[in-house]
Amino acid sequence: MTTEAVSAAMVPSRAVWRSVLWFAPLTALWILLIYRWPAIPASGVPTTTHQLAAHGLIALGLWLGLEHTSLTPAQRRATWLAIMIPDTLWFAVAWSAAINGVFHPGTTPLPVLPSAIFMPVIIGAPLLLFSQRIGQVLDEMPASWLVALQLYRVFGSWALAAWLRGALPGVFALPAGIGDVLTGLFALPAAIAVATGTAEGRRAATLWNIFGLADFAVAITMGMITSPGPLQLVVPDVRSIGAGDYPGVLTPVFVVPSSILLHALSLRQLRRRSRAEAARRSKSVSARENGAYKMDPGRIRNYRNDRNWPKAAAPAG
């Protein structure tokens, strides 16, 4: 390994650890802030703000990615609107329903809260994972974008602050809150790693995505078994996330499914990058192997003359 290669490998590593060292104290400060002043998370402003910011960044990133594809301007606009209009309406409906107490148990006999969690994923995942146009956008979009975007997951620390105040049961708040904070903390290091374009960077981003999805699996499971309903197995001393109170209910009805879809898109993008890299390497190896057997035309003529020389010289003897 050359000195240049070693230096190139060390620079991202230093940047990764530097990002964690900067971001972790800020996250701890935020947890202390919302613990000391619970009116901040209770207002719903942090959740609404970071989701609106993520919504805007998704819209911008999608448009920039579409601009680099071979689609016509009309196709780009149609694709952008086909994604952003449903996403915007989804957020507006979820936010309005949460404020009006639609997700409170007993409001309706229908399983509103579980439907709000799973239906967007069931409908959106196949559309996003099998769309050719989305695949073209992912190919043009930097792989680090979809990873770094989930920095907002550190705001899941509201669950830890609520547990410290006795407003959420620890059996739900601890695994859900810690998982969210770790996912958000390591989003930036994973983005830095995958930006290097190496197989190791893609592997790190893939592991980060798997961890983020596992966090949701644990959080959803613990939320269901600690909340009022037919699946409740644990009755905590305080009301859990399934109580449907605003603004906490915005997390399962919008943040969770939208983040799951972002993880799915990132995994698809990383898989496409790995396949493209493997195809380029295979083509490069084939080209080198073919080139090794090619001979200069002048050498071929000399080789043929050398083979014919004994035959031409034989009659003279």
Descriptive account of the structure:
With 317 residues, the protein is mostly helical. α9 (170-185) packs antiparallel against α11, α10 runs antiparallel to α11 and α11 (199-226) packs antiparallel against α12 (250-292). The chain contains 13 helices and no strands. The protein has one domain.
Number of domains: 1
Point out poorly predicted stretches.
Answer: 1-11
Give me the Rg, rounded. Answer: 28 Å
Structural category is mainly alpha
Please work out how many helical segments DSSP would assign. Answer: 13
Number of strands: 0
Strand residue percentage: under 5%
The N- to C-terminal Cα distance equals 60 Å
- Main sheet specs: none
User: What is the overall shape?
Assistant: globular
Helical content stands at over 70%
Give the SSE order as H and E letters.
HHHHHHHHHHHHH
The overall average pLDDT, rounded, is 84
- What oligomeric state do these chains adopt? single chain
